[in-house]
Design a protein that fits this description.
- The protein folds into two domains: 154 residues, 2-Layer Sandwich (60s Ribosomal Protein L30, Chain: A), CATH 3.30.1330.10; 158 residues, Alpha-Beta Complex (Phosphoribosyl-aminoimidazole Synthetase, Chain A, domain 2), CATH 3.90.650.
- The chain is built from ten helices and 13 strands.
- It has a seven-stranded mixed sheet with strand order 8-10-7-11-9-12-13. The chain has a four-stranded mixed sheet with strand order 1-6-4-5, with helices on one face.
- α5 links the parallel β4 and β5.
- The longest helix is centred in the middle third of the chain and has 18 residues.
- The radius of gyration is 23 Å and the shape is globular.
- The N and C termini lie far apart (55 Å).
Length: 364
């Protein structure tokens, strides 16, 4: 029985008991972790709040609230995006679903010219999923968020019956502020503009395919999963009048350039020799009948800039670790409008159209 004559001792025991109740002891997720009760509270506090610790999240409200003046100091428009991640497998060379979820949303904000600030994190967990694996993924998300300079401030967790999902799905939404002197859009390209990329294409798609273990291939290809907001900062510092930026994820380089060409009503000419593709990725694509132009990337930025700014932007990008292999791969032309043409190594021209179907499902 508690000693009621010593209220301090009683308080200490109650506090110790409260702290102990807040620690996850379960080794696997069960339906109670999505029920809204004590098990769910323990999961949220011990796995999520302990990692994403920040003053906004610590309030544990149903929403995150901010002072509008904080946003106004960065720019005059908000950028808001969301994406869901269903990658298979959850862990792959160079990353995992957690890092992917953070970097993907950060990059979607950054290519609008925005400074990414805050993320949400919602998870759909399958009954039986390992708590230790979940901790590892959330820790990876924290590392990625810190690297990008963003905070995870609110979220949600749902648990579904065993077999109703494939282990874990993650949704992240993000909010950022667009700088007042920046307006970039896929509809802004003009003839003569330079098309730049910050390195090799196709590494993420190749790494995922190899990680699935369906091919008897041994290679050290790793995903390029990384945040690009620092690289965007470097670009905008020397060229705030950048025409357009896009991260080449699903559909790869070819899809981004077709979107640019069709939105702006211009043509784009690519030089095959100028497009950086790792030899191992090329070899894998030849073996499987794939095209690296359509392979997914998670750390590649396609940027269109006025021709007179191309050299300065390339130099600024190469000063960043994410952009050390930046190069110009093509030029915007007047015609044929809406068409991307690849000048091959053999001197012929090939139309690079939008992808029909799906080369590799569940790559992000």
């Amino acid at each position: 029985m508690a000693n009621l004559s010593n209220p301090n001792s009683l308080f200490q025991k109650l506090e110790k008991s409260r702290q102990q109740r807040g620690k996850m002891r379960d080794r696997a997720i069960d339906l109670s972790h999505g029920s809204g009760g004590k098990a769910m509270r323990d999961l949220i506090e011990d796995v999520f709040v302990s990692q994403f610790d920040n003053p906004v999240l610590a309030q544990l409200e149903d929403q995150a609230t901010f002072n509008l003046a904080e946003f106004a100091q960065w720019g005059d428009r908000l950028a808001f995006t969301t994406d869901s991640y269903v990658v298979d497998p959850l862990f792959f060379p160079g990353g995992d679903i957690g890092a992917l979820a953070v970097n993907g949303t950060v990059n979607d904000l950054a290519v609008s010219g925005a400074k990414p600030l805050y993320l949400t994190c919602s998870l759909i967990l399958e009954e039986g999923f390992s708590v230790d694996t979940l901790r590892q993924i959330i820790a990876s998300m924290k590392v990625a968020a810190d690297a990008a300079g963003v905070a995870v401030v609110t979220g949600d967790t749902k648990v579904v019956h065993r077999g109703a999902a494939d282990k874990l799905f993650i949704n992240t939404a993000g909010i950022g502020v667009i700088r007042s002197n920046v307006t970039c859009s896929a509809a802004s390209l003009q003839p003569g503009d330079a098309i730049l990329i910050n390195g090799e294409i196709g590494n993420h798609g190749a790494a995922i395919l190899i990680a699935r273990g369906e091919l008897a291939l041994e290679t050290d290809i790793t995903s390029d999963c990384q945040p690009l907001n620092g690289l965007v900062d470097a670009i905008l510092a020397v060229c705030p009048e950048v025409r357009a930026m896009r991260d080449a994820t699903r559909g790869g380089l070819a899809t981004v350039l077709n979107e640019f060409a069709q939105s702006s009503g211009v043509g784009i000419h690519l030089q095959e020799d100028a497009i950086p593709v790792r030899e191992e990725v090329n070899g894998m694509c030849e073996l499987l009948g794939l095209d690296p132009l359509y392979l997914a990337n998670e750390g590649k930025l396609i940027v269109a800039v006025p021709p007179e700014k191309a050299d300065a932007v390339v130099a600024a990008m190469r000063d960043r670790p994410e952009g050390r292999n930046t190069c110009q791969i093509g030029t915007v032309v007047e015609s044929p409008p809406g068409i991307v043409v690849l000048q091959t190594r053999f001197g012929t021209g090939r139309i690079v159209d939008l992808l029909v179907g799906e080369q590799l499902p569940r790559i992000c």
